[in-house]
Amino acid sequence: MRTNFSALSKRDKIKLVCIMYISVWATAPVLAYGTGYRILALLAIVVWSVLELFEKRSVFRKPPPYVLLLFLFLLYTIPVSYLADGISALNRNIQFYIMVFFCLSTHPIKGNHWRY
């Protein structure tokens, strides 16, 4: 389904720009190693998550089983990796954690008003 960008609300445009930046960041090798680019990627995830919290059909309000499993997986792996290897483990796995974001951002909700 094709979406007209000008027909989207301001909130949806911001969310789409966040997803587009993270997509470019994840696929461009040059951006993966810069600290500033990583911080921007994390900031884009935070902005998308905050905007998603205020949606009526949010992935966080009515999560399907696989989203709950993702949350449990992250709640387990982040502290365990930090305890095992310290902050370097989190830095090493940041690419993986951001890729998990794509599972959340592309969550297909029936009747959602915007799709990619």
Could you give the topology of this structure?
Elements: H1 10-27, H2 29-32, H3 35-53, H4 65-85, H5 87-92, H6 94-105
Please outline what is shown here.
The chain is mainly α and 116 residues long. The chain has helices at residues 10-27, 29-32, 35-53, 65-85, 87-92, 94-105.
Tell me about this structure.
This protein is an all-alpha fold and 116 residues long. The chain has one domain (9-105). Helices cover 69% and strands 0% of the residues. It is built from six helices and no strands. The longest helix has 21 residues, at 65-85. It starts with 9 loop residues before the first helix and ends in an 11-residue tail after the last helix. Mean pLDDT is 79; it is low at 109-116.
Name some characteristics of this structure.
single chain, 116 residues, mainly alpha, flat, disordered C terminus
Approximate strand percentage = under 5%
Number of helices: 6
Mean pLDDT: 79
Report the principal-axis shape: flat
The largest sheet is: none
Count of strand segments: 0
Please tell me how large the radius of gyration is: 15 Å
From the helix content, strand content and strand pairing, which structural class follows? mainly alpha
Number of domains: 1
Distance between the termini: 7 Å
- Helical proportion, percent range: 55-70%
* Low-pLDDT segments: 109-116
The helix/strand series, from N terminus to C terminus, equals HHHHHH
